[in-house]
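Hello,

Our lab assistant flagged a job as stuck in the queue for most of the afternoon. It eventually completed. Since we weren't sure the result was trustworthy after the delay, we are filing this so someone can double-check. Below is the sequence as submitted and the structure that was eventually returned. Let us know if re-running is recommended.
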Amino acid sequence: MDAHVTLTLPVLSKGATSGTVRRFQQMLNVFMGHGEEGSPVQPLQEDGVFGPATEQMVKNFQRFTEGASLTVDGIVGPATWTRLLTMWLSGNEPG
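-- returned structure --
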């Protein structure tokens, strides 16, 4: 059975502050906030503030998520939300 859900999610970008930013940071940490042993990757602080570290992590997600053809702009728009939520629901990691 297929289910279709329509969500309206805000566009998130540098300077935004909200509970939605915090939840996005939590989800992004699951997929991008860890590195191999010795990696310089640091998890995001889940503080609800879309600062430089969150922007860079978004760019990394956009750049390294295979098959998504995401624009690497550090902005969480519909395509980035869709890819992250699809991965979240399916349990897939990028790359």
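-- support follow-up --
The delay was a queue issue, not a problem with the job. The result is valid. The chain has one domain: 12-31+46-95. The CA atoms of residues 17 and 95 lie 29 Å apart.
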